[in-house]
Amino acid sequence: MIIVMNPKCSKEEVLKIKKAIEEKGVLTHLSQGETYCILGVVGETRAIDSNKLLRFQGVDKVLKVEEPFKKANRLFKPEDTIIDVNGSIIGGKNLAVMAGPCSVESEEQIIEIAKSVKESGATFLRGGAFKPRTSPYSFQGLELEGLELLKRARAETGLPIVTEIMSTDYIDQFERDVDIIQIGARNMQNFDLLKQIGKTRKPILLKRGLSATIEEWLMSAEYIMASGNENVILCERGIRTFETYTRNTLDLSAIPVVKRLSHLPVIVDPSHAAGYWYLVEPLAKAAIAAGADGLMIEVHNNPQCALSDGQQSIKPESFKIMMDKIKRLAEFEGKIL
Ligand code: PEP
Ligand code: MN
Fold first, then answer.
1. Per-residue pLDDT tens over the stretch 121-175
2. Same-domain pairing of 164 and 249
3. Which of 109, 125, 263, 320 has the most CB atoms less than 10 A away?
4. Residue 274's pLDDT band (boundaries 50, 70, 90)?
5. CA of 80 relative to ligand 1 center, distance in Å
6. Residue 287 sits in a domain of what CATH number?
7. What residues form DSSP beta bridges with 262?
8. Which keywords annotate this record (predicted)?
9. Is-contact 40 29, C-beta < 8 A?
């Protein structure tokens, strides 16, 4: 339920209605801008009589929110959510570029890649330390050592780090050490992990599940937000379809759909969507044209020998060429990179 207040209503009027609704055992969420004042109501709203609410001073309208996601809903918060990670901004007019290897493999590897992607204009360093691999016999990541190496690469370049968490066991460490905590596609519906991660104060990058609908994806964001953390970045990374030529199918329409439904920033990972290095640049450009707030790109200095996802990783030289085009596209779209 949404209570649209008159933008000129007084603080007292807002407090009065807020108190009256909260007495019914629901939670309220105030969103105020220059031209609007909205009180979102979450919880069991069936017992609330909207006609009675209209009698309160300052109330313009009462609307029912059809979608099951509330805090993530643009009706609850009309303006874009903008996330500032030590000066690197995601959302609004900004374009964020997260680049780096699939897995952190060694100190030399991560530092060399971090330096080169920074030089080409990346705004974040990505790198997996804990890897969700399909086979238990594949490289599982350097785990905590990988996290230490990412911290060294951050110290060396100043790039904030994004890395995936797989278990609630490491939440404290990730909250302390990582700038953006990634929830991978395979864990998008690990509700316990979502609830726990929602208690942290770090931005969360939530990848779309392999076969998740847009609504399921937004409901996962809602889990994190309902636990108290509203700094969620959505990441479209391709979904399973009948097509097998590409690793997944990049759902470009998800970008404008999500931007209409939600105020959360949406970035695109063309690397995991495509599965092949030569598809990364065209899909990245398409994502920007479709309105994405940023990109996540796998870059490796020696893709043939990469311990994971070498076939979809682009070399630092190709990343530079791609970034020059992305910068021009960003300008065309009126975005800041
Ligand atoms: C990754 O970003 O390294 C990754 C494993 O991605 P996804 O969860 O989208 O498969
Ligand atoms: Mn990968």
1. 999 999 999 999 999 999 999 999 999 999 999 999 999 999 999 999 999 999 9
2. yes
3. 125
4. very high
5. 25
6. 3.20.20.70
7. 73
8. Transferase
9. yes
